[in-house]
Amino acid sequence: MLSIIIPLLNEAGNLELLHQKLTDTLAALGRPYEIIFINDGSVDQSPEILKGLFERDPHVVVIHFRQNFGKTAALTAGFRHSRGDAIVTMDADLQDDPAEIPAMVAKLETGFDLVAAWRHNRQDPIDKTWPSRVFNWGVATFSGLRLHDFNCGFKIYRRAVTEQIRLYSDFHRFTPVLAAGKGFKITELPVQHHPRHTGKSKYGTSRALKGLLDFITVLFLTTFLQHPLRLFGSSGIAIFGAGTLIELYLTGLWLAREVGGVAGIPPIGPRPLFLVGILALILGIQLVSIGLLGEMIRYFTFQPEQEYTIRSVLTHQK
Ligand code: UDP
Ligand code: MG
């Protein structure tokens, strides 16, 4: 079974046509399917239109949020309500073409857990495409996951992926990174991209900073979360060590001057190096302490099933 998940905020002008195109494609595909619309606090005619679609089409499921909670929350709600073995997410504005779904399904079935659409002929204004290029380059470089297009809403997941990844904030941009961190196999598929059918984009350039902060969190969660002390502790010990060496050196100078009476050595108190050494000592201790706090949080929030993902089990047990 295939679940199509569509988060939407004020997309009244797009829903009828989207539903029509989806129905054409999915009926031809010949598999059981459901279309889950998540109304993320729309204040236009979207709720009425969704009601009409629900009454006409038994494949349609509608989830109304009480207010706008954001696209990530809408996707999570969709994942949790879905029943499909494969789950497609797409935007409601017809920028993603439902006609691509069969190709996405076929690609998934060649042995992948997540297929991300790649908008190779992206139809968006330049103030969107350029920040997006920088973003994709940065995420690919630092995550080591070689995709061209992370932020596209159009993706297909195996159920195991949507059950394993935890999304909050604006993590919808990083589902491939989070899935890769759990060992899932990920690939991309070039798709046609269209200009928005009607309505306005919900995301401006302000998302750049949010995206960066979210990415730092995601990198942390997928790499060093296992051992916070290894991240903070190693730099902490290095900096503390440098501080110790500096202060030992200055102590030597002080002894030579004050006790040994060696001439020509200036007093150490006014030297910038003196302060640098003290700063390094304090910073080093702080970093190690932060690492230990991280370990403590991890210890007390530890959940065994979050530590690994199983592909399959061979067993003779009944
Ligand atoms: N969306 C949502 N909640 C939000 C913002 C956006 O459900 O708070 C939906 C929106 O209706 C659309 C999809 O997320 O279906 C992508 O939004 P948009 O097309 O505005 O993003 P863009 O394509 O301009 O990056
Ligand atoms: Mg859009």
Q: What is this entry, summarized?
A:
The protein has 318 residues and is an alpha/beta fold.
Question: How would you describe what is shown here?
Answer:
The chain has helices at residues 12-29, 46-56, 71-81, 101-108, 126-143, 159-164, 175-181, 207-222, 228-258, 272-301; strands at 2-8, 33-39, 60-64, 86-89, 114-119, 155-158, 186-191. The chain has 318 residues and is an alpha/beta fold. Strand 2 (33-39), helix 2 (46-56) and strand 3 form a beta-alpha-beta unit. It is built from ten helices and seven strands. It has a seven-stranded mixed β-sheet, sandwiched between helices. Helix 1 (12-29) packs parallel to helix 2, helix 5 (126-143) runs parallel beside helix 8 (207-222) and helix 9 packs antiparallel against helix 10. Helices cover 49% and strands 12% of the residues. The chain folds into two domains: 2-207 and 305-314, Spore Coat Polysaccharide Biosynthesis Protein SpsA, Chain A; 228-301, no CATH class. Magnesium ion binds next to loops. Magnesium ion binds at residues 91, 93, 95, 196, 201.
